[in-house]
Amino acid sequence: MSPRWVEPFYRNPHLVSLSLTAVSDVPFDLSDPFWRQLERLDVQVESPFHGQHGSSIAAFLQNFPFPAGQVRLRRLSVTTQLQTRFVSSPRALQDIVTALISTFSHAPLESLAFDDHASCESEDLARLAAGFPALRSLSLGDRMVWNGSRRDLLSSLAPLTSLETLSCRLLPVVPPSLFDSLPSPKADESVCEGDDLEQFASPASIALEAATVLPALALVGFSGQSSAVEWFRVRRDAESQPCEVEAVTLVDLDLDRP
């Protein structure tokens, strides 16, 4: 849905979920009370031209003055359209995080998803967690470029004590972690006697490490190894400590939509 088609929906007092497509340099008029009643907003951002400097998401949010004060927005998704014909350098995630916090920090967000080709530092995740401490679901997309160790990146999310679902590109496998294990020569014929056996960071071990940092985490999804997200369910002991994870298949029924 483009911006020019949003206005007719102002007349619907019961509309609480909206999906739209927007160009990052086209401003929105959000003065109508309609925007305050929204509980779910999904936006796909199109770049106005190839070679745009900075993040398309950050540029879009500069033209999207979401109303301040009392709002009902609980679920937000902002995605940049994938430009398959061009290869671009990753943008700084700092710009996206700054724009998200400036635009939506007053909203009672429980679910946040955004996807852009961006370079992520642990400081960026720390600012994101501080800006949206009540999140229960966080998706960082599969075009993230990690800069930092797995330990530092996960530790930055520690303030998200209510986070139940985390989805992102597979976190760095080096340097090794205490959660990693040695590959079994019997399970992997390519491992020969005398080889330098380095610690092996499987997606399952990384999911278990994430669950140790995030006390409410129940589902972890990693992309980057295949076309589909690889999901793990966290099992916890009687003291709520993560003891193991198991691979699961999720079916998205989108039951939260009205």
What gap, in angstroms, lies between the N and C termini?
A: 18 Å
User: Topology as H/E string?
Assistant: EHEHEEHEEHEEHEHEEE
- Rounded average pLDDT: 82
Radius of gyration: 20 Å
- Find the structural class using helix and strand composition: alpha/beta
Strands in their spatial order, largest beta sheet? 1-2-3-5-7-9-10-11-12
Q: Are there runs of 5+ residues with pLDDT below 50, and where?
A: 1-5, 187-198
- The number of strands is 12
Count the domains.
Answer: 2
Indicate the CATH topology of the largest domain: Leucine-rich repeat, LRR (right-handed beta-alpha superhelix)
Number of helices: 6
In this structure, how is the largest beta sheet organized? 9 strands, mixed
**Beta-strand percentage?**
15-25%
CATH architecture of the largest domain: Alpha-Beta Horseshoe
The shape, in one word, is globular
So what's the CATH class of the largest domain? Alpha Beta
Q: Please give the share of residues in helix.
A: 10-25%
